[in-house]
Amino acid sequence: MATIAEGCDAADLRRECEAIYSALAVFQRKVVIVLPNPNRSVSADITVIGGGILGLCCAWEMIRRGARVRVIEGKRIGAGSSGGHVGALAPHAPENWNEKKAFQLDSLLMAVDFWAEVEAVSGSSTGYARSGRLQPVADAEAAENLRDRIAASARQWPAEMAMRLTDRPDAPLLPQSPSGIWLEDRLTARINPRAALAALAEAIRARGGEVIEGSAARLQDISGPVLWATGAKGLESLSQDLERAVGKGVKGQSALLRFDASDAPQLFAEGIHIVPHGDGSVAVGSTSENEFAHDRVDARLDEIVARAREICPQLAEAPVIDRWSGLRPRAKSRAPLLGRWPGRHGHFVANGGFKIGFGMAPKIAAIMADLMLDGVDAIPGGFRLT
């Protein structure tokens, strides 16, 4: 910016003033002044209870917006249902379009930038990649029946990601197809669940947040708003508090095989996800067990692995390097369960998201940050806890 020199005459002074006014005009055009939202209380701590995908994503989003956040996880990050292997970010079928499917699509499209920022801040990979998906088609009749689904995907999804039938898939890992035809889409993505959770925790800490593991939350020690993202146990507690069933835990089991197909699309056949990850492993799963004697790994997982090897013979000799089981939170509606905890002022809930938690998490985080920081309730009606 121009400065006024000593001893200048009137003409010089006028020129100096004009230069200053010109510089100020440029400055005003370039600077955007952001005023604080009058409803936001950034100085107040936000406490997130639960170190799974919903809790960590919500914590990260609120930190991005300037809040001070602490996460309290009673065991360890990813100790619950988020700590499995599969990480399939797969869209709902595009027919019969509704609010839930539209919300999920928004979240899947947000995921690219969301996870890129987490990786940039944490310095760690999340394993995210929009690698696509292949599904075998049983016969010509099944292929014909898919026409409506394919047309719906072209209407609802970005055109370049829509479904299509192919008899020449370009993939190093293929499920057997009796018809020689596969259904392909380029919207489906993958993420490595454990790597993503670790990267989120690192990003939160890097931005000044706290992540406390191995410590039970003591409400008497917590001031400010609280977000409960506590999975299956949280649904149980919520049901007891509200004296009505809002959801339950469903047992899931998955396995990790050593097989390097890191650039391959994921596969879906006979209800089984087969997801190649970028670290030279392939995830297989998950079971969905409403009735179970315990929450540990059992013979059901062996059955899933055997079926996956039949579906994809290339995996026949791939060794199992890890097994997982856990209780996944399923709200009664099967949709995410979001909003204020009825009867508990300042307490909020982010739960549910059965089978779709990782895919829904970026937009759930944005919605809950809107609610908790700005008082803006944009929760879809079918997701709202009442």
Quick structural overview:
This is Glycine/D-amino acid oxidase. This protein is of the alpha/beta class. The protein is 34% helix and 21% strand.
Descriptive account of the structure:
Residues 1-8 and 17-44 have low confidence and may be disordered. The protein is α/β, with parallel strands linked by helices and 386 residues long. The protein starts with 9 loop residues before the first helix and ends in a 12-residue tail after the last helix. It has nine helices and 16 strands. The radius of gyration is 25 Å and the shape is globular. A hairpin with a 2-residue loop joins strand 11 and strand 12. The strands form three sheets. It has an eight-stranded mixed sheet with strand order 5-6-4-11-12-13-10-14, sandwiched between helices. A six-stranded mixed sheet has the order 8-2-1-9-16-15, with helices on both faces. A two-stranded antiparallel ribbon has the order 3-7. It has a domain at 45-247 and 333-383: FAD/NAD(P)-binding domain (3-Layer(bba) Sandwich).
CATH class of the domain at 45-247 and 333-383: Alpha Beta
CATH architecture name of the domain at 45-247 and 333-383: 3-Layer(bba) Sandwich
Quaternary structure state of the chains depicted: single chain
Cα-based radius of gyration, to the nearest Å: 25 Å
Q: Judging from the principal axes of the Cα atoms, what is the shape?
A: globular
What is the count of β-strands? Answer: 16
Organism: Paracoccus saliphilus
Keywords: Oxidoreductase
GO molecular function, one term: oxidoreductase activity
Pfam families: DAO
